[in-house]
Input
Amino acid sequence: MTLFSLVKWDPRCKIILMACLSTLAMLRGEVWFLFGLLVFTCLLVMLGGAELSGALGQVKGLLGLIFSLFIIQCFFTRSGEPWLVIGGFTLITSGGIELACILSLRLFILAFSALLLLTGEVRDYLLALVQMKIPYEIAFMTMASVHFIPILREEALNVFYAIQLRGCELQKASWRKKLHTYLEICLPILVGALKRTRAMALAMEARAFRAYPKRTYLRRLVLKKNDKAILVAVPVITLVLLVY
Amino acid sequence: MMGINAAVEVRNLDFTYEEGPQILHRVSFSLPQGSLTAVIGLSGCGKSTLCHCLCGLIPQALGGELSGEILLQGHDISGRPLAQLAQTIGLVMQNPDLQLVTTTVEDELAFAPENLCLSPAEIARRIERVLAWLNFEHLRLASPHDLSGGQKRLLAIGAVLTLEPQILVLDEPMSHLDQQGQKLVKDALLALLKEGCTIIMVEHDWQIATFADNWLVMIDGRVSYFGPPADILQDKDFLLQHNLL
Output
């Protein structure tokens, strides 16, 4: 079971695995293959040690988007055999259903493969990216943006509540009014984010950020035998599956 | 007041933001080694701007027009890169949430020495020293954002202390803290003082800063008083006139 315990995998293995699963999902276009890939990805997430309840919670937010895209593809793709005809007008075709399934499966695979990263610590992924020769500034900013998403979300909610406390009843408002309100919310959030970024940049400057072209690191990730095997096997298998 | 052994010496400092009003007017003072000075004044009087000048963020990172001289440990700071200055003078900003940029306490403490290209052994030594000083050994892998207000403030101070600066500037270190948090920070500052660190603490609430050796009272960008707090506290008229009481 050690091999499947993603928690013990080197973060570079998880990044490569996620990249390979995403590549396969985007480049292969058969429903049966994508379905198999989705089952495999789900099994990996479950056996790998990711907290399933938390993982499903993360994907739940995407369900609405995937369902909407499924419906749009079903009704607007006009290829293959007609499956549903009403009053002489073809509503759903076999090509539409196939494309909708492919698109939905792809999105599910992308979401679940990203969940593989939940089995590790953010600090380890930062180190992994740096050891994969990604410039520290880019790796740091990637991690910092992930880190700041919940803070921005909280800030947005605060502005949202503040507007409601000032007597703006959004539930009863028209779509036009709602849209106008959301645009008004965006401005303080944007200004807040810019101020936050500036203060953060100053604090980092005061702590010698980019003092030298290179920097040293307290820790270093070391690949174990299993990790090396995974780093070779996963891209090779991906290549084989793409070619055949 | 200009002393040979001054840790910080400021001479005739003027500062104007680009296309803005003049913020600092002929500011001059000299701080002895190992002293704690509280910069007191109302909001907008130029306290934070003075801090940014001392640390070199003005004009290097924030721009503006600066004239006058700033000497740290006897050396003029003009033209010295920020990274080099950071090893002499550390700045702890007002809001710790904006300065804590990593995901664990250990990484937060490692950030600055890593930037200085120190060896992993030296980085580890500095982290251990600060962790022990903060009494944070049990919080090594905790997320900085899960800490209490006082603990966050201490971590922000600790993160700067890993640069081992001789001078420490703190911008309103007690703001938004309850009494327990304020005590934590105050005890930490007094401990630093015992180790010979020179501390400059910006405060708009003078009642918090009564333990300082000296007060530097700023009014509209000018130094109105510099000396022991006991003297100025007797001058009720001055305090009332400038809304400090």
Remarks:
- Chain A has two domains: 2-120+226-243, 127-206.
